[in-house]
Amino acid sequence: MVAVLDRKLFRDLRHTVFLVAAITLIIATGVACFVAMRSSYNNLVTARDSYYSECRMADFWIELKKAPVGEVARLGDLPGVTEVRPRIQFFATVDLPTSESLLNALVLSMPDERLETINDIVVRQGSYFTPTRAAEVIVNEDFAVRHGIKPGQWIHLLLNNRRQELFVVGTAISSEFVYMIGPGAILPDPEHFGVFYVKHTFAEEVFDFDGAANQAVGRLSPTVRARPQEFFRQAELLLAPYGVFAKIARKDQPSNFFLSSEIDGLRTFAAIMPTIFLGVAALVLNVLMSRLTEQQRTVIGTLKALGYGHGAVLAHFLKFGLLVGLLGGVVGCGLGYLLAEGMTALYGQFYRFPALPNRSYPDIYAAGIAISLVCAVAGSVHGVRLVLRLQPAEAMRPKPPPSGGAVWLERCGVLWQRLNFGWRLVLRAIIRQRLRTSVGVIAAALGAALLSAGLMMVDSSLFMVEYEFKQLSRSDVDLTFESERGRDALLEVERLPGVDLAEPTLNVACTMSNGPLSRDVGIMGVAANARLTLPRDAQHRPVAVPENGLMLTRALADRLRLRVGDTVTVQPIKGLQREHTVPVTAISDGYIGMAAYADIEYLSRLVGEEYALTGAQLALDRNAEARRRLDRALKEMPAIQAVNDRAALLQNLRETFLQNLWIFQVELIVFAGVIFFGSIVNASLVSLSERGREVATLRAIGYGPWEIGSLFFKESAVVSALGTLLGLPLGYVLMLLLARTYDTEMFRMPVVVHPAALLQTVVTAGVFIVAAHLFVQRKIMRLDWLEALKAQE
Amino acid sequence: MIMSDNSASSLDASDVAARPLVKMVDVTKTFQMGEVEVRALAGVSLDIFAGEMVVMVGPSGSGKTTILNIVGGLDSASSGDVYYRDIDLAGMSDRELTRYRRNEVGFVFQFYNLVPNLTALENVLVATELVREPMDAHEVLDLVGLADRADHFPAQLSGGEQQRVAIARAIAKNPELVLCDEPTGALDYRTGKSVLGLLVRLKRELGKTIVVITHNAEIGHIADRVVRLSSGAIVELVANERPLPPEDLVW
Fold first, then answer.
1. ipTM of the assembly?
2. pTM of this prediction?
3. Under an 8 A CB cutoff, do B75 and A405 touch?
4. A694 and B103 in contact by Cβ < 8 A?
5. How far is Cα of residue A59 from the mean position of the Cα atoms in its chain?
6. What is the helix (H) or strand (E) element at residue A225, kind and residue range?
7. Which residues of A touch B72 (CB under 8 A)?
8. Among A403, A418, A423, A697, which would you mutate to test the B interface (most chain B Cβ atoms within 10 Å of its Cβ)?
9. Which domains does chain B carry?
10. Per-residue model confidence as pLDDT tens digits over B199-250
C-alpha cells in the first residue's frame, strides 16, 4: 500500500513542479553557500597548514640591532624553543632597467646550502643557491613575474649604500609571504615590493655582519606557542644587550594575520549566509505544505477512513518535504563545489600558495544535505500539522467558506472608503493570510538585508580606501631614509624635480604603556600645520596635531584605556631607549592599524634630538615628464631606504579591487534575487491555487487576465515592499555585526551608508518583484479557468 | 404548442420578423477527455429573443451548461455558428470575448462564486467598476432585498442571500443577457422560489433576457419557452402561453 502512496507523492511533486523548483532553488542556494564557504575554508586551512609545515613556518620573529650568532642561538636553551635560526634582514632599493621608479626590497639571508630550515622557500623556477658564486639571489615569484626577471639574469641592488650586482639563480615563494605585504604597509603591492633571498655568508659580508645577525626566527613547542608571553620576556632579557626592536608572535605576523582574518571571516560567513537562505526556505516550505494539506483534506480524510494511522499519513506528507530537502541539498552540493572552485581561485589571486586546489569534502556535503533535510522537515512539520487534527468525517465534508469579517484596517473609515474594491481585496487578503504575509515579509526583509549589507560593505571598503589615501594621508610618494637626518635632508627633498610640496616625518617605534597594558606602536611626528597627513575625528573633520603631548588613534587609546588628559609611558625601541611620561592631548579616529601622532619638534626633543626626520611625504606635479625626472633623481639619491609610491598603489588597488567588487555585487544580487523570486513566486502560486475559483469567476464576469494579475501583483508588491523596507535597517544591523567580526587591532571596518546602496536595494527588489510577477502572470494567462469555474473546492 | 423539431426558428409567426438576440446554428462541441472524445453538443440550433425568459432543462450531461458557456463567451463551439446581435462569437479574439462578457453578459452560478474577501456591496462593485454605465450598486442590492446586508462578507450570509448577491452582481453591469447556471441548485425550497421570483421580476421590470438552466423540470413553468435537452440535442421546445408565477410552483 505504501508504494501506492509513494506514487501519489511523485504525482504531487509533479503537479507542484514550479513551487517545488522555487523552494529547491532557495535551499540549493543556501546549501551552495554553506558548501562553497566551508570548502573554501578547508581549502585555505589545508593549503596554509601544509605550506606552513613544508616551509617550517616560524612561531616567532625577534628583531635585533645586531647580535652575535652564538648569543642568538642561546634562545634555543629557553624552555619550549625547539629550533632557532639567526637571520640577517635589510631593506634596500632595487634599480631595474625595466622600471622607471625605484623599487623596494627586503633582503633576507638563507643558508648557503640547501638544508631544512625555518621559514624556508619553495623554489618555483631555476634552483637554490649554487657553490659557483657568492653573489647569488633568489627573487620572490610575483615580483620576478611582474618585472620579467628570470634565472640566469643579473640584477642590481643598492645594499648598504653600495651597488651590488647579483646573479639570479631562481624564483621562489615562502610561507612568510602568503599575503605579500611589505613591512608597515597596509596593502600588498607586488609591483613595488619584492623579497630577495641571498646567501648568509654574502649578507654577512655586505652588511658588515660577520658572525652576527639582526633577526631571530624560531619554532616553539605547542604549549609555549599558545602562550608565548613568558618566552618573549625571557628572550628580551637574554638579548637586551644587543637591542631588541620587536618581538612578533606568529598570530601578529602580517601575512599570517591577514590570512587568518580572512579564514575567520569565511567561517563567520559560512554560518550567516546559509542560515538566511535555509530559514527562508523553511518558511516558504511551510506555506506550501499548509496549502498542500489543505487542498488534500478530502484525501487525508479518505485515507484515515480507510484505516491509515496519523503516522502513516503524516509520514506521507513529510516525505514530500524530505524529497524537496534532498533535492535542494544535492543540487546545492554540486553548485557549492563549483562556487568553491571560483572562490578558491579568487583567494589564490591574493594569497600565494604553492598550490591551492579545490578539493571535495564528503563530510561537508553530508553536513550540507543533513542541514537541508532538517530545514525541509522543520518547514514541513508545521505545515502538515493539520493532518493530525483532521477527523475523517470532517475532512470529507467540503471546506467551510473562509472566515470573513472586517479587518482592522477597515476601522480607519475615511482611508478605507477611498480605496477601490481591488485594493480592498488585496489588503484583506494580506491581513487575513497572516502566515503567508509574514513569510513574505520576512523573506523580502532577509533578501533586502543581505543585499543592502553587502552593498554597504562595498561602500565601506571603498570609503576606507578613499579615507586612507585622500583624507588621512594625502601624499603621492613617501620616502623613508636609512637613518635619522636633519633639516638639510628636507631641503634636499624639496629641491627634487616635480615636487610641489614636501613635508618631514619622524617615525619612532616605541613601547607605549599604561600600567599593565602595553603595545608596540609607531609614533609619527609631523610638521605643525602639515597638509599631507591630516588625522581626523569620528566625523572625519581634521584634528590638529597638538604642539605638546601625543595624539592617539581611538583603537590604541581604547586598548590602553586612555583618555585625553591621561598620561602614557613611552619607551623608544631604538636609540637611547629612555622612558618618558607624556600627556595624551588628543584622540583621532582611523581605520587601519594603531598609531599615534605628535608634532615633529616635540617628538624630536623626546628622542633627544633638536630636529630629526626619518622620511618625507611628497605631493607631486601631475605631469608625467616631471614624474620621470623625479624617478631618475631618486635613483641617484643615496641613503633612501624605501620609496612608497602611494599614487600607483591607489591606482592598482582601484583596478583589482573594483574588478572583484563587481563580481561580489553580481553574486549578491543573484543571491538576493533567489530569495525574492523564490518566495514571491511561491506565495503567488499558492495564492493562485487557493483562489482559482475566484479568478475564474472574475474572468467570467469580464475581467481580463492582466486585470486579475494586477490584483496578485499588488498583493506581492505590498508584502515585498514592506519586507524590503524592514530589510534596510536589518541590513544595517547585519553590517554592524560583520564590521565587528573584522574589528581587530590592525583593522577596523567603517560602517558607511550611502543612500545609493539603499536605493539600489529597493530597485533590485522592485525588479525581482516584477520579474516574479511576470512568471505568475504567465500562469494566470494559461489558467484553465473554465475548469476552475466548474470545480467545487 | 409542442414541437418535436429541434429547430426553434419557426416558432411563431409573430416572432419570425423579430431579430433574435442570440442565434445558434447547428452548434457542436466535442471535448477531448484524455484519450476519449466526448460529444457534448450534437448540432444545436436555437434562437433567444430579447426580453424573454428561456429555461433549459435536462439531466446532467445533456449539454445545458455547454450551451450556456458557449452563449456566454466562456467557451467556443467546435463547429456551427453562434451570433450575438449578428456578430459571430467564433470570430472574436480573447480580448473581444472578454469585452463581450464584460458588457453584454451577466452570470449567476450554482455555487454563487462570490469573492470571499469582499463584502456583499463590494462583490457588486467588482462588476460595476468594469463597465461605463452600470446600475447603482446600492440600488441593485436594494432590488434583491439585501440593502441592510451590504457590509456583510459571504461567510456571514446564508446561501439564498449569497445567491441574491450573485444575481445583483450579474445585473449591476446592466447586461442585456443574464445567464443562470442552476441558480436554485444549492438552495432550499423556499429560498429557491424567492430567487426565481427575483429573476422573473428582472425580466418583467428591467426587460432583461434571461436564460436559466436547471435539471428541475418544474422550473420550466415560469419560462416563456422551455428547451428540453438530452444527450447534447434539443428534444423538445415548448412555448408557455401563460407562464406561472414562481410562488405557484411545487417541487
1. 0.71
2. 0.78
3. no
4. no
5. 25
6. helix A222-226
7. 700
8. A697
9. 2-243 (3.40.50.300)
10. 998 899 889 999 999 989 899 999 999 999 999 999 999 999 889 888 888 8
